[in-house]
Amino acid sequence: MPVTSETIGLNWGLTTQIIAHGENLLIFSDALYEVTPNGESEKKADYSTGTIAAAILNDFLYAVDKSGTFSKIRLKDWFIEPLEEFFTEAKKIKALVAHKDYLIVFSDKIWEVYPDGRSCEMDNEDWSTTKSVAILDNYAYVLKTSGEIFKLNLDDYTHKRLSYDFGVANTLVAYKDYIYVFGDNLYEMNPANGKHWIGQEDDWSNTLAAVSTSTNFYAIHSGSDGNLWKLDVVE
């Protein structure tokens, strides 16, 4: 299905992470901003320490900075609590997602990390080349630097390779019933078998970060303009 795109913002070139907060976006740039679907932005917190991963769990935003320190940000008032001793493997984190009542951390291994600080290693294979992770139903779709995409069952952490065709891709998102991969084109991928086709014939390999909500998905380009794009699928 073809994908439409429109620019809704500029000057987001310093972005390191973008996550969904309802239908709005939370963008980690020179500070933490909340952005509406039409591109209006509001600064929420002075948090600009180079966020490498972030996820919302319950009423808190968990973020990891480039030093490997977790912070817990309370969403009702944006109070920031550094968690100095929270998950000692944080310096190795490549991606972070929320699932059920815990966080899933992708580093050199896969870990479940709970709000009280407990952690459990779930898979001891090497996941240190993870570039991006998207959740669809009860599966995680993992893009590695090799261009491979793996499908990971979140019940037992068994996994299989779906594709190895995305060597220039930087990120992926789950939207509606498909996985969208930002590479030399914007690809739509069937999550069942890895078959994929071009959703938009344009170069998206300079995408810094991307995320989906229930009504759209979004991407930010690198470069001086730092365009924020809103995308949708033509049914």
UniProtKB/TrEMBL annotation:
Superkingdom, taxonomy of origin: Eukaryota
According to UniProt, the name of this protein is 2098_t:CDS:1
What is the native source organism of this protein?
A: Ambispora gerdemannii
Source organism lineage? Answer: Eukaryota, Fungi, Fungi incertae sedis, Mucoromycota, Glomeromycotina
